[in-house]
Amino acid sequence: RMLGVAYPPDLIDDVIVPPTAHGVHVISMGFFTEEDQAVIWRGPMLHKALEQFLTDVYWGAPEYLVVDLPPGTGDISLSIAQFLPRAEVVIVTTPQPAAQKVAQRAASMAEKVDLTVVGVIENMSWFRGDDAKAYEIFGAGGGQELADQIGVPLLGRIPLVPALREGGDVGRPIVIA
Predict the structure, then answer these.
(1) Largest alpha-carbon pair distance within the chain?
(2) pTM for this structure?
């Protein structure tokens, strides 16, 4: 489960109280479905679920609310713009041109719905082999190219690191470990 949380949220007086892991309140569709089942919903159902996550979950007074969206320009992105009109967007891409194109569309959509893109993060930037050499498996420079194209800073490049995956698998993020 996400961040190592293996129990569902509490429900108190019709308010969902999210579980906390590593000081972070977290809510996920995964808490409400069987682990091996797909969530197959059309736009209106996704919109309603997002609305419930924003209005029926007790978040307290968070400094940040992070919403992890799938790539692209779908219904959920439109709903975010409607529910959170002052939201800021961080675009995540991988270095290769095909991923840049998808990420660029997400940035373009954000602009069209008046959301501010604050930067780009390049994921899976390189892998360091046992020989200590950095291998750019998915190409190089795509994150910077995208950031330059849309006029925002490149916030970071994240390498392929086994410890990152391993920490995610057991719910102990590398920044905590």
Answers:
(1) 57
(2) 0.85
Residue 104 has what pLDDT? 93
- What local confidence, expressed as pLDDT, does residue 159 receive? 94
Burial (0-12, 13-18, 19+ Cβ within 10 Å), 147: buried
* Tokens 């604050």 -> residue: 118
Average model confidence (pLDDT) for the chain?
Answer: 89
Average pLDDT over residues 3-26: 90
Whether the pLDDT of residue 1 is over 60: the answer is: no
Per-residue DSSP letter, 132? S
Q: Which two tokens stand for residue 132?
A: 């200590």
